[in-house]
Amino acid sequence: xxxxxxxxxxxxxxxxxxxxxxxxxxxxxxxxxxxxxxxxxxxxxxxxxxxxxxxxxxxxxxxxxxxxxxxxxxxxxxxxxxxxxxxxxxxxxxxxxxxxxxxxxxx
Length: 107
Fold this sequence. Notes:
This protein is an alpha+beta fold. Helix content is 22%, strand content 28%. A hairpin with a 2-residue loop joins strand 5 (29-32) and strand 6.
């Protein structure tokens, strides 16, 4: 699946979710220019593989996917103040998504 990293970074093994909070699956691999890479940074366009996911079924081409980071990681990132503006916006969106199920998530 071809993706553009809009903010932050993605790595092998990261779980992805849709904007409704549904977990898609984990990233199995990332490639850039036909070479395997361990992570992709903001602005990069890469190919990712996700087992059991079909574009057009579980995800659509225009979907924005988010990393489903653990709650403790979200708390730490908020406290550390090391994120740039785009990364803070995405973290806040992830928290908003996760709070639809648990209003205290990330607190």
